[in-house]
Amino acid sequence: QQQQQQQQQQRQQLNGNSNSDNNEDNSNSSNNINNDNSNTHDNSTQILQQRGTPILAAEWIIASDTIIGGNQQHEVCLWKVSTGNCQTLLGHTGPVTAVASSNDGRFAISAAEDCTIRLWEIRSGQLLAQFWADEAIHSVATFDMPDGSLRIAAALESGRLLWLQMPACNL
Fold first, then answer.
1. Side-chain half-sphere of 47: how many Cα atoms within 13 Å?
2. Which of 32, 29, 30, 34 has the alpha carbon at shortest distance from 12?
3. pLDDT at 3
4. pLDDT at residue 155 in the model
5. What is this structure's pTM?
6. Is the model's pLDDT at 18 over the cut of 50?
C-alpha cells in the first residue's frame, strides 16, 4: 500500500499537481508527454497530458507515432509521441468526446457535444468536412472502403447510430 501511495504521488508530481486530492492545477496550459516508469520495468509507458485540460477521447493513428485526442476545451490535438509536440485543431464549440482515424492514417475524425462530426486531413491539419447531428455524439468509428471512400459511424447521445459515407472524390 505504501508503494501504491508513492506511485500516486509521483503521478501527481508528473501532472504538475502536488495536491493529494488532485483538484488544484498548478501548471500552465502547455502540451507535453512525460515518461512515467515508476510502476513498470521498462520504458514502455508514457503519460500523455495536456496540462489543465481533461482529455476525453484518444486513439493511436495507425502506422504513425501520432495520437489524436479530444478535450474538454473543445480542441482536437495531434500529439507526436517521439517529440511530445501537439498540433491543435480548432473548430468545435463543445467538449470533444470522440476521435478516430482512417485506416490509412490520412484522416482524423472528431465528434463533440456541439453535435458536429469533423473530418480533418492529418498531414495539414485542414478541416475537410463537417457534419451535423441533432444531438451530442459519444463515439465514432471509421472504415476505409476498397473504392477509396470513407465510412464514419457515430453513436449519438440517445443511443441511435448515425453513419456517413465520404466518396473518394471528396477526399
1. 17
2. 34
3. 52
4. 95
5. 0.71
6. no
138: which 3 cell numbers?
459519444
Which residues are within 8 A (CB) of 43 and not within 5 positions of it... i.e. 6 or more apart?
35, 37
| Cα(136)–Cα(115) distance, integer angstroms | 4
Reduced DSSP (H G I as helix, E B as strand, rest coil) percent helix, strand, coil of the chain, to 5? 10, 45, 45
Cα separation of 64 and 47, whole Å?
Answer: 18
Beta strand spans in 36-170 (E): 46-50, 55-60, 66-71, 76-80, 86-89, 96-101, 107-112, 116-121, 127-132, 137-144, 150-156, 161-166
Give CA separation, 92 vs 78, 83, 96, in Å. 15, 26, 7
Beta-bridge mates of residue 141: 153
CB of 52 within 8 A of CB of 27? yes
What is the widest separation between alpha-carbon atoms in the chain?
A: 59
Residue 171 CB burial class (10 angstroms; 0-12, 13-18, ≥19): middle
The secondary element (H helix, E strand) that includes residue 33 is strand 31-35
CB 108 within 8 Å of CB 122 = yes
DSSP 91: -
